[in-house]
C-alpha cells in the first residue's frame, strides 16, 4: 500500500479545522475510529465488571481487549499491562511501591535527559527511604546520553535505573538496551519512559530490556489514559497500598477504583488505527503495528529532516542539540524574542507549537535555558506534511526578521 499521508489525514476529523499541528509531543489529535469507539461504548449497556449479567461481561471484555491491544503495540504480555490515569501517576505508583523496601544503602539512577515524570518520583522515593540518587548526564553539544557512564553509575546497591526511550525535548533516543544490560548485570530493575518514543518508532519491550515500560495513549492518537507494562512475575513481587475488598490478582492489584471502560475502548481502537497505517499483508495485529510504525517513521523522518534543515538555515534561529537517529522532535529559539512570544505569534497564525520546558526540567536547567523561557518545540507526527513544514518555516523566518506576521 505504501504510506499515504492524505489517507492517513482523512482519519483525523480535527484536521478539518485548518490548524497546523506540530504539538504532537504534548498530545496528538484523536483518530476518528477512536472517538467512534468511545462514543459507542458510552451509548451501550456497559456495567461494572461482573460475570453474572451481560453488561458487566462487556466491561470485562473491554478491559481484556485493551490489555491485548497495548501488548501488541509494545510487544508485552497482556497479563502484565496495568492501566492508570497518566504515565506520571503510574510511575509514582511503581516508585512508591518499590521504595518500601529501600534503605540508606540503596541507590537509584536517573538521567537529566528525562521528562520529570521519570525523575521526580524516583528522587522523592529515594529521599524518603534515605537512598542515594545518582545522575546520568547528557552531552550538551550533541544531546546524547552516553551509555559508558552507566558502568560507573550502576553498582550492586542500585535498585532502579530510570531512563527515557526518547527525549520529549530534543528527541534523543538513548541506547536503552545497552543501559539495561549494565543495570541487569548488577541486579537492578530498569524503568523506561516510553511516552515519547511509542508514538514514533516500533517498540519491543523485551529487546529494550525494560522491566517496566510506561506509555500514554494520548501521544499516539488515543484517549487520555496510560499503561505500564511489565512481566506478570515482576508485578507479583510488588504489593501496593490497596483497599481490602479490591482484587489482589495481577494486574488488577495495581488499578484503583473503576476503570474508564469507554477510554479503554478508545485505546483498543487507537492501536487498531496505528496498525492500519501501512500494514502490508502482515497477518497479525502485532506484525501490522510493526510494519505500520516502521513505514510511518520513515515518512516522518523525511518530513522532519526538511524541518530541521530549514530551521538551521534561518539567520537568527538557534536549534538545540540535534542527535542523529532521534524521534522527530526539535527545540529551537528565535534569538531576538522569548520562546513564549514565538509560540504565541505562531499560534495566532494557526500553527500549534509549545514553549517552555515541557516538563524536561533537568534538560533545561542543565543547559541554562529554563530561566529565560526554555525553547520552542515542534514535533512531527504521521499526519504532518511537507507543505505544513514550509508554512512553519516561513512563519519562523518572518519572526527572525522581526516582521509583523499578524
UniProtKB/TrEMBL annotation:
It comes from the Bacteria. Pfam families: Aminotran_5. Transmembrane segments: none annotated. Residues 21-392 form the Aminotransferase class V domain. This is Cysteine desulfurase-like protein. It comes from Virgisporangium aurantiacum.
Amino acid at each position: 500500500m505504501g504510506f499515504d499521508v492524505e489517507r492517513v489525514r482523512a482519519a483525523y476529523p480535527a484536521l478539518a479545522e485548518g490548524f497546523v499541528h506540530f504539538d504532537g509531543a504534548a498530545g496528538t489529535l484523536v483518530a476518528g475510529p477512536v472517538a467512534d469507539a468511545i462514543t459507542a461504548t458510552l451509548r451501550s449497556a456497559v456495567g461494572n465488571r461482573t460475570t453474572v449479567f451481560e453488561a458487566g461481561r462487556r466491561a470485562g471484555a473491554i478491559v481484556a481487549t485493551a490489555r491485548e491491544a497495548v501488548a501488541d503495540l509494545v510487544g508485552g504480555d497482556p497479563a502484565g499491562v496495568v492501566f492508570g490515569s497518566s504515565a506520571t501517576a503510574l510511575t509514582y505508583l511503581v516508585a512508591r511501591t518499590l521504595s518500601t523496601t529501600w534503605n540508606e544503602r540503596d541507590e537509584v539512577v536517573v538521567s537529566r535527559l528525562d521528562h520529570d515524570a521519570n525523575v521526580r518520583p524516583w528522587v522523592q522515593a529515594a529521599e524518603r527511604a534515605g537512598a542515594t540518587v545518582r545522575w546520568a548526564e547528557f552531552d550538551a553539544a550533541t544531546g546524547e546520553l552516553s551509555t559508558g557512564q552507566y558502568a560507573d553509575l550502576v553498582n550492586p546497591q542500585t535498585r532502579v535505573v530510570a531512563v527515557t526511550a526518547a527525549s520529549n525535548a530534543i528527541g534523543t533516543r538513548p541506547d536503552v538496551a545497552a543501559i539495561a544490560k549494565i543495570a541487569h548485570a548488577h541486579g537492578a530493575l530498569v524503568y523506561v519512559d516510553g511516552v515519547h518514543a511509542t508514538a514514533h518508532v516500533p517498540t519491543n519491550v523485551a529487546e529494550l530490556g525494560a522491566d517496566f515500560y510506561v506509555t500514554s495513549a494520548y501521544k499516539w492518537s488515543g484517549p487520555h489514559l496510560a499503561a505500564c507494562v511489565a512481566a506478570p512475575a515482576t508485578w507479583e513481587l510488588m504489593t501496593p497500598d490497596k483497599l481490602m475488598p479490591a482484587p489482589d490478582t495481577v494486574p488488577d492489584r495495581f488499578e484503583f477504583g473503576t476503570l474508564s471502560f469507554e477510554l479503554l475502548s478508545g485505546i483498543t481502537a487507537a492501536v487498531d488505527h496505528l496498525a492500519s497505517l501501512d500494514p502490508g499483508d502482515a497477518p497479525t495485529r502485532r506484525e501490522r503495528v510493526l510494519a505500520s510504525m516502521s513505514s510511518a517513521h520513515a515518512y516522518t523522518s523525511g518530513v522532519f529532516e526538511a524541518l530541521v534543515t530549514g530551521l538551521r538555515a534561518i539567520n537568527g534561529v538557534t536549534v538545540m542539540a540535534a542527535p542523529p537517529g532521534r524521534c522527530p522532535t526539535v527545540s529551537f529559539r528565535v534569538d531576538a524574542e522569548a520562546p513564549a512570544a514565538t509560540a504565541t505569534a505562531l499560534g495566532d497564525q494557526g500553527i500549534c507549537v509549545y514553549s517552555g520546558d515541557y516538563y524536561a526540567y533537568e534538560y533545561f536547567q542543565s543547559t541554562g535555558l529554563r530561566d529565560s523561557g526554555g525553547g520552542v518545540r515542534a514535533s512531527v507526527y504521521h499526519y504532518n506534511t511537507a507543505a505544513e513544514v514550509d508554512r512553519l518555516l516561513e512563519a519562523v523566518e518572518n519572526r527572525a526578521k522581526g516582521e509583523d506576521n499578524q
